[in-house]
Amino acid sequence: MTGNNKWIGILAVQGDFELHAEMLRRMGVAWRLIRRASDLEQADGLILPGGESTTMLKFFAEENLGPAIKEFAAKGKPVFGTCAGAILLAREVLNPPQESLGLLDISIERNAYGRQVDSSVQEGQCPGLSSRPVEMVFIRAPIIRRVGTGVKVLGRANDLPVLVEQGNVLAATFHPELTQDETIHRYFMKKADDGTGSE
Ligand code: GLN
Asked: Using CA atoms, how far apart are residues 198 and 160, in angstroms rounded to an integer?
């Protein structure tokens, strides 16, 4: 995100939106918090943070945010979901099934690493983004169980797909905003600068 008046919206109804804001601040990217549908109109990209997808869905219903986000994505504007944000973007949610935006053709299982592995830090690989391993923090993380044909796997950890992309929609099952590693956010900003997805 260079020059001009572009800015990224960060959904701020619940979850770790402030950490995404801090990451963008460090990177010198303009951002604003999004709490209602009208906030989104002028944004050039949108981040859905980690947190609790069930709680976020309640706010979606109250503020009519679901249709606004779908409309935003349909314009080709880049959308990036991390962890709970990835769950919200999926076509199908398992464990238990729940409503979602259906913007990304994946099936995703919530809390899939089991209770005993509440959180972990892993070294993953995102070959198209970085030649170095990427530090990935997983917290009550989901696992992507099915990847649709139009979906590219950009990152893996322990052989599982953890960073996926379909056109203008990007999703990570981990929390890049919890590390100092800007690789994933830089990639997303590039999508926002190009004005569309990579297809
Ligand atoms: N378990 C959470 C959910 O189902 C996601 C956890 C997270 O975002 N760190 O929404």
From this structure: 22
Residue 111 Cβ < 6 Å to ligand 1: yes
- Main-chain phi, psi angles of 179, to 5 degrees: -120, 180
pLDDT in tens, 26-74: 999 999 999 999 999 999 999 999 999 999 999 999 999 999 999 999 9
- CA of 50 from ligand 1 middle (Å) equals 6
The set of catalytic residues is 83, 175, 177
| CB of 110 closer than 6 angstroms to any ligand 1 atom | yes
CB 63 within 8 A of CB 40: no
H helical segments located in 14-156:
17-27, 53-63, 65-74, 84-89
Q: What is the Å distance from ligand 1's center to 136 Cα?
A: 15
CATH annotation of 8-194: 3.40.50.880
pTM here? 0.95
Instruction: Compute the distance from residue 172 Cα to the ligand 1 centre, in Å.
Output: 12
